[in-house]
TrEMBL record:
Protein origin, superkingdom: Bacteria
One GO cellular component term: cytoplasm
Record GO terms (molecular function): ATP binding; metal ion binding
Name of the protein in its database record: tRNA threonylcarbamoyladenosine biosynthesis protein TsaE
Record keywords, A-Z: ATP-binding, Cytoplasm, Magnesium, Metal-binding, Nucleotide-binding, tRNA processing
Family assignment from sequence similarity: Belongs to the TsaE family.
Source species of the chain: Odoribacter laneus YIT 12061
Length: 138
């Protein structure tokens, strides 16, 4: 499935359609260049899910936890600063990835061997006109 996103207003609608499309899946690997909109997409997902917290990049924290209005949790990871698989293992990634809560993972290529087999690939590309394309592979 592919969507083209021409504006921030359209992003919210794409986030809603994305959630419908992926159904009950929980682990999402967000691929794309720096600045392509991965964190902005997680913000839009959070809006759809009723997140009450401020959503920001977890670059230095590695993982941010967001609460929804209904008390559910969404995890947002940024492995950009991870240099070895051991670093990801040290913070207990299994509890997050296999805990049943949605996990949105930026820079998943850094920990590819740790990703569950049912991880949904989300590929972000900036198009020549400045719009973004999101391709989702289940």
């Amino acid at each position: 499935m592919k969507w083209t996103i021409n504006s921030l207003e359209e992003l919210q609608e794409v986030a809603r359609k994305f959630l419908e499309y992926v159904g009950e899946r929980k682990i999402f690997a967000l691929y794309g260049a720096m600045g392509v909109g991965k964190t902005t997409f997680v913000k839009a997902i959070g809006n759809c899910a009723g997140v009450t917290d401020d959503i920001s990049s977890p670059t230095f924290a590695i993982v941010n936890e967001y609460q929804t209005k209904t008390g559910k949790v969404i995890y947002h990871f940024d492995f950009y600063r991870i240099n070895t698989i051991a670093e990801a293992m040290d913070f207990g990634y299994e509890e997050y990835f296999y805990g049943g809560a949605p996990c949105f993972i930026e820079w998943p290529e850094k920990i590819a061997e740790l990703l569950p087999s049912d991880t949904v690939g989300c590929y972000f590309t900036e198009l020549p006109n400045g719009s973004r394309e999101l391709e989702v592979k289940l």
